[in-house]
Amino acid sequence: MAPADDPPQYYVQWQDKEVPVWSMRTVDYGLLLSQDPQEVDKVVKACLEEGYFYLDLDNIDGRRTLQDREDVLNLMQRFFEAPLEAKNEYGLIDSHLGYEPVGSRTGAFGAGTKDGYEMLKVSRDEIQQGSPRVPSPIKNGGDLQLLEKAIGSCNTVTKVILSALSTGMNLTGAERFENSHRNDRPSTTTLSMMHYLPAEVTGQHKIGHQKHTDISSLTLLFSDQWGLQIRPPGECGAREMGFVAPKKGCAFVHVGDSLRFASGMKFQSCIHRVVPFDPTEHRYSIAYFLRAEDDTMFVDSEGRYVTAKDWHDQKFKAFTDPWQWQAMAPKSMILGGMTEAGADDPEPVTAYAPEPVKAH
Ligand SMILES: O=C(O)CCC(=O)C(=O)O
Ligand SMILES: [Fe+2]
């Protein structure tokens, strides 16, 4: 049986309910690097049938990326402790780089809620050009070197996956996916560092990260902490929202809209959101968004012929629009044309809606 039809691995208690923890394939990075035919087949099937998989990096080729991830985690924890004025020194410089404070977008529980995370994004292009605009708490030479190393290794890992996908889909020459993700062409590729605050600190209407599919081609996501939920695609629309269990030595990789479009809608884009699994903890996650070159053309979920940059800008605007406007945008924008049936939560979520802490 293909994992897309597999029952959940197990259930966990969340919000007084039994919530599935979805099973998924684990792809071995070392084998993928060698274009092992079975592993290539596995990653292609994962993208065609589910739109996501674990990538096992706990091997000679991947461990340096795991180390980079540890280093970034330390750096971001230090950064997020800095005063807001220092973090927000340049604000959000462009949609794919800069700082976004808590509450900039819609939250996990939809209309009327705001997100519960702050985020710093560093542009791959700017790192490559040697002039990244990053706020002063992480401006020293060591920090920049570390960011360059991490972005470089995430870039390599995601390109290895792209290359395996091209091979597995029998793409040759200019048709190969890598050819629209060249390093020397401008793109909105970015490393995004996120800090989710406990609801007690943010207040009752600022929680989690709204349900969406990513704009990107591939997302390489790291977090040791629970909170990420996905809706596996199914025969009659996406199935129930369930958790992704953090897996040691592994990243969670998922397909975003751009690669779904580039595959002629053959690949699934992953519907996901972030909820407070443990509402008292601070949650940290790192996402590398590999995006197509700005002028790559594809047919989007609306049937329009658009550039990767246009898709990025329009969807980013939809992400950051007030929820009333978001409700008016086509649903295919936020979910990249993926369909779903049924509500995310059988009942409205109220358990994590404590009164905001009053300032003294
Ligand atoms: O924080 C996470 O685990 C996921 C974040 C996410 O979905 C995003 O930034 O697009
Ligand atoms: Fe996402």
Automatic annotation (TrEMBL):
Keywords assigned by UniProt, alphabetized: Iron, Metal-binding, Oxidoreductase
Domain of life: Eukaryota
One of the record's GO molecular function terms: metal ion binding
InterPro entries recorded: DIOX_N (IPR026992), IPNS-like_FE2OG_OXY (IPR044861), IPNS-like_sf (IPR027443), Iron_ascorbate_oxido_reductase (IPR050231), Oxoglu/Fe-dep_dioxygenase_dom (IPR005123)
GO biological process, one term: small molecule biosynthetic process
Domain Fe2OG dioxygenase residues, every copy: 186-292
UniProt similarity note: Belongs to the iron/ascorbate-dependent oxidoreductase family.
Name the UniProt record assigns to this protein: Fe2OG dioxygenase domain-containing protein
Lineage: Eukaryota, Fungi, Dikarya, Ascomycota, Pezizomycotina
